[in-house]
Design brief:
2 copies of one chain form a homodimer.
Chain A lengths: L8 E6 L11 E6 L5 E6 L7 H10 L6 E5 L8 H19 L6 E5 L9 H14 L5 H7 L8 E7 L2 E8 L12 E6 L5 H14 L15 E6 L9 H21 L7 E9 L2 H12 L2 H8 L5 H8 L12 E4 L2 E5 L2 E2 L12 E7 L5 E8 L3 H8 L4
Parallel strand pairs in A: 4-5, 8-9, 10-14
Antiparallel strand pairs in A: 1-2, 2-4, 3-9, 6-7, 7-8, 10-15, 11-12, 11-14, 12-13
Helix pairs in contact in A: 1-2, 2-3, 5-6, 7-9
Chain lengths: 383, 383
């Protein structure tokens, strides 16, 4: 069910003393092969953490032997010392596993602008290596949590091969990857080019369309590692669909655990002239604070949907916009539609459908409501 | 001090029964000339309310005799009936004042997607006309309030001439005009081209740089009416500076009254390669929910500033970014700077300075913190 669901992988998750609360904060995932093909996608934020700089380099040759992830500190905006600490982490891991340093990817998550307690981290690595096991995925998924309230794992199994994965992320969830760390593993036998294509195809439609709070992280990383241990090479379409399924499941888990959220909002934009238009409109709605407050208050305030659509460059005629909330078309032809009193918003799941009446393309995005709990969580301590 | 500070203008503000709470909800401002030159700027939202469509047409010939503003309903997304109601308002006003219908500008503010009680509005116009007076500016400024907690007025007087104004706006405050209605009046003798240039120059640097919650309204309108009653024609530079001063003052009042806000945040971006870059960076920071929560919690979380900067296309090197919060350079060269414990955030006013180290251009934007009170105000009832 987790990052060790596929054959050829072991993992561990331990408390290394990086988090002040003593919780698990260091995860290691090791690919025991025979193949070490890998692909990765990273945050499009131009301010990037040291581990992102490092892991981009590691992924350049499409090969990863191990991934080390720490919570308790993002190691972002930490200058040359931050790079040094990331390198030391990779080097120590490589020594312990007897692999090349350049095949060790690093991810960090936590507060920006604070140096990691690197001594404790390096000591922790030794402990983590002792605990590596094919049952270690669950511990690993706990060790990468920050403000997450639950660990997030997923897996799918097809004929002879499996994809497993874990994710973390609850705030600073936005596009160009929702803010998150994700490690996916598979025992399928595929080269890194195929992994890269499947991963990009999947993230484009899943993690890239999760926009919880419009804030983009400095540390986003999604990795896909293939051990080849199944000795099965699936068809591309089948493999890509499975990767997307796992990404979709993990993305939904991220939204459901978003900081302070009380409503999960699915925004479906149809009738768009292009998919880009549909995504732009969906994202504009997902980021509208006033609408997100209204949804929190179970108020089907479609005027706020229209005012959000109106800020985009998408093709549409304002007099041909239609909006449904939970299936009730409260806005027709840009004006008042069905009675808003008919909208039942008591469920946690809310579905907003926008018909731009401008074409045949569509997209789905996910967000959540804006609540006082989000404000509390993000104002009461640094994160 | 108000919209009737300049000679040649009368105003009134009455309760016409549009607002359910019985408060003042209908304002009229009349220009008695001798000149009726006018200029206007409107929301850049592509979904525009009926009164915006109408008033754009009215302003086309640079002439306005009267402005009617109602609160209690935005008359946006109201279809043909909405247009009809706006036209009826202009027509009735024109009849009562014996002016051309096409010289009556209309503004509306309130909930989107609800038809106005136009009968009550038209009846109210008669009452309002009876109450028009040179002392009516104060009442008018109260009649345009929605979630505003205080009326907002301003004026400046130069040698022989005056500019006065009023504004409303507390939520849905964002760019391409902060969400607001503003009426400015002057007794200076200037033609509409000069008014237009002065108004655009001023709004670009004031209202356009107020970004309270990133949400853009369907009804934004800023009007400048000149009566020429002073018979003084000031130099352009002097007049433009005075218009900007009034707009700046009203813009600051909008920010100070923003829904739920406990901190007024000034964001100064310096060292930019272009003014556009500075504005893009400032706006990105102003819209970062996580940062706005941190400021609410008096947490000088500069990492969230950097992650916001990183989402822009502005020219900068991440390793040369500097950030000061209330004068303490907590981030230097993209990394840890002065001790964040030195930052005193107890005052309501917070100043964030970003040095992009990429040029000599700069810009200042204003926003406020994100609070539980904002969520409550925008989730507990439709607005």
């Amino acid at each position: 069910m987790s990052v060790t669901a596929a054959r050829g992988f072991t993992a561990a998750g331990i408390a290394a003393g990086i988090k002040e609360n003593g919780g698990k904060d260091l995860a290691v995932v090791v690919n025991h092969g025979p193949s070490h093909a890998a692909a990765g996608v990273f945050t499009s934020n131009r301010v990037q953490a040291a581990p992102v700089h490092w892991s981009r380099q590691v992924l350049a040759d499409g090969k990863v032997r191990a991934v080390v992830i720490n919570s308790g500190g993002a190691n972002a905006c930490t200058g040359p010392k931050g790079i040094e600490d990331t390198y030391a982490t990779a080097e120590t891991t490589a020594g312990l596993l007897d692999v090349d340093t350049e095949d060790v990817a690093i991810c960090s998550t936590g507060l920006i602008g604070v140096l990691l307690p690197v001594g404790r981290l390096l000591t922790g690595l030794e402990t983590a290596m002792d605990r590596l096991s094919a049952a270690g995925g669950e511990d690993a998924s706990r060790a990468i949590m920050t403000t997450d309230s639950v660990p997030k794992t997923s897996s799918v199994t097809r004929e002879g091969w499996t994809i497993g994965g874990m994710a973390k992320g609850a705030g600073m969830l936005a596009p160009g990857l929702a803010t998150m760390l994700v490690v996916l593993t598979t025992d399928a036998a595929l080269d890194s080019d195929v992994l890269d294509k499947a991963l990009r195809d999947a993230t484009r439609l899943t993690f890239d369309r999760v926009d919880s709070d419009g804030c983009m992280s400095t540390n986003d990383t999604v990795l896909l590692l293939a051990s080849g241990a199944s000795e099965v090479t699936p068809e591309y379409a089948e493999f890509a669909a499975a990767v997307r399924e796992v990404c979709d499941d993990l993305g939904q888990q991220l939204i459901r655990d978003a900081e302070g959220a009380s409503k999960d909002i699915e925004i479906e934009v149809v009738g768009a002239a292009s998919e880009d238009d549909a995504v732009e409109v969906g994202r504009s709605i997902a980021r509208n604070n006033l609408l997100k407050c209204a949804i929190h208050g179970e108020d089907p305030n479609w005027g706020r949907v229209l005012s959000a659509i109106g800020t985009t460059k998408a093709a549409f005629d304002p007099n041909q916009l239609n909006v449904a909330i939970n299936g009730v078309w409260v806005c027709k032809n840009g004006g008042v539609g069905e009675d808003r009193e008919l909208v039942d918003m008591t469920d946690r799941a809310v579905r907003i459908t926008v018909d731009l009446s401008a074409g045949t393309q569509s997209a789905i995005l996910w967000t959540n409501d804006l609540t006082a709990a989000y404000v509390h969580e993000n104002s009461e301590y640094s994160s």
